[in-house]
Specification:
This protein is α/β, with parallel strands linked by helices and about 475 residues long. It contains 17 helices and 17 strands. Bound molecules: iron/sulfur cluster and zinc ion. The site of iron/sulfur cluster has 10 residues, from loops.
Length: about 475
């Protein structure tokens, strides 16, 4: 049976009151792997209903939020309630949220205020976003960019064919969600867009009860009909349906973290790597995580929902025998979890680990307003600091942190202090085009530390090549 799924269903709507269980049964009988029930769109009750339906069915998940139509319901209280619901175990995304300037059911200002808050909430909760944008693509993409939504990414729901929007979304790591519209006679421009988009960034949805695909157009939609959407995409992309189904299923799992094993510890050669956070002070222009690319070999380092606790990290470490070095890495800055970092490092030293290494942005002292190398010095043996650039201006352009050009001097100072605390200090940079390697090395030499150039992962830009 072809594998399908519905990444966007409104099964809590009254349209299903008479036969909801029957619709769900039909979906799973047709090969549906999972359904994501969208909580927003029916006031605060919709969020509760979505979670209840998810709790009652093994392969149904929920999202929570406020639809742009109901943005006028947004206030401190509704926001706090939704923030609380986001912690429910079956909630896997924030949405649908965004801007709808077509119907304008809520005032623009309310929509913007709510959307901004939900982008921030998604980042705090480490949940992907489900975006609704109508007649407001430029504005909504701008808000996603400014709100650093690429930290968590998500999907652009009910994509309408705007390629400018699609490119911006792909650059932020978002997936593009396609529904029954793609089967409509008058939707040639959407089919052209689908033909041009990278297949590894597309996901399936119905938006049921709306937008039934041909031949059900005009009738009530339901999750089983993603099969028609899948067929239509297969025809447009000239890909065999079964193979496409596998790719699209994989995409949705990666986008929402469904069935993706969260990697806390992994091992390469005789080193153990600890992935304790995805949070960063920097927003580096070259970072693959902002294209939702968290892969290191076969490991997936995106942390959905939450960061591993001290106990979970230690448990995970215990499962690996025989290693010489432990490195704190990941697509995040380990010192953002300073307490956990120090505690884990102490445990490692107490358990005889020869070398504990920290890969850091070197901004910790600036962030905490104190010298954190003192705390780290007794439990960390070696540090690799991302120097990244030969001067403050280049550094701030590449790393985009809130401290601006002053942050470069902070990194240099961190390295100076680190030299007095750790056995080994290495300054690193990424091998980017147009960044002066020799000049950067000269800075490292001047500080009297080792220097290493890290490879730039061009392969993460794969989809960009396809669009050229
Ligand atoms: S500090 Fe590292 S993980 Fe964070 S944005 Fe920069 S490259 Fe990415
Ligand atoms: Zn919807």
């Amino acid at each position: 049976m072809t594998k399908i799924y519905d990444s966007h269903a409104h099964l809590n709507f009254a349209d299903y009151d008479a036969d909801r269980e029957e619709v769900i049964r039909r979906a799973f009988a047709a090969g549906t792997k999972f359904i994501i029930n969208i909580g927003s769109g029916m006031g605060m009750k919709g969020n509760d209903d979505a979670i209840r339906i998810a709790n009652e069915h093994e392969n149904i998940y929920a999202t929570v939020g406020l639809h742009p139509h109901e943005a006028s319901l947004f206030n401190d209280q509704t926001f706090e309630t939704i923030a609380g619901l986001a912690d429910e175990p079956r909630v896997i995304a924030i949405g649908e949220v965004g801007l709808d300037y077509h119907y304008m059911h809520s005032p623009k200002e309310d929509q913007i205020r709510a959307f901004e808050a939900f982008i921030a909430l998604a980042r705090t909760k480490r949940l992907p976003l489900v975006i609704h944008s109508r007649d407001a693509n430029r504005e909504s993409m701008g808000m996603l960019r400014h709100g650093h939504a690429g930290d968590v990414a998500g999907v652009i729901h009910s994509f309408g064919g705007d390629m400018e929007q699609a490119h911006q979304a792909l650059d932020l790591g978002f997936y593009i969600s396609i529904n029954g519209i793609v089967t409509f006679k008058n939707a040639q421009s959407l089919r052209d867009a689908v033909a041009a988009l990278p297949v590894e960034r597309l996901v399936l949805e119905t938006d049921c009860p709306f937008l039934s695909p041909v031949p059900f157009r005009g009738k009530r939609n339901e999750p089983a009909y993603t099969a028609q959407v899948l067929s239509a995409i297969a025809g447009i992309k000239h890909i065999e349906e079964e193979r496409l189904a596998d790719i699209l299923l994989d995409n949705a799992r990666t986008a929402f973290g469904i069935g993706v094993e969260q990697t806390t510890v992994y091992r390469l050669d005789n080193k153990l790597y600890l992935n304790i956070t995805n949070r960063c002070t920097n927003v580096c222009v070259f970072c693959p995580k902002f294209r939702n690319d968290y892969a290191v070999r076969d490991y997936h380092l995106k942390l959905f929902k939450r960061e591993p606790t001290y106990d979970e990290i230690i448990d995970a470490v215990r499962r690996f025998p025989g290693y010489e070095e432990v490195v704190f890495v990941g697509f995040g800055e380990p010192t953002r979890r300073l307490e956990v970092l120090v505690a884990v490092a102490r445990w490692l030293k107490e358990h005889g680990v020869k070398t504990v290494r920290l890969d850091t942005d070197g901004l910790g002292n600036l962030v905490y307003g104190r010298d954190i190398t003192a705390e780290l010095g007794s439990v960390v043996d070696a540090v690799s600091v991302s120097l990244n650039a030969p001067d403050a201006q280049t550094y701030s352009r590449l790393c985009n942190n809130p401290y601006g050009e002053a942050s470069y001097e902070a990194v240099l100072n961190f390295i100076r202090l680190a030299k007095t605390r750790f056995r080994e200090v290495t300054a690193t940079m990424v091998d980017l085009p147009n960044i002066d390697v020799r000049a950067t090395q000269a800075v490292a030499d001047g500080l009297g530390v080792r220097f290493r150039v890290r490879p730039y992962y061009r392969e993460s830009l794969r989809y960009k090549k396809e669009r050229e």
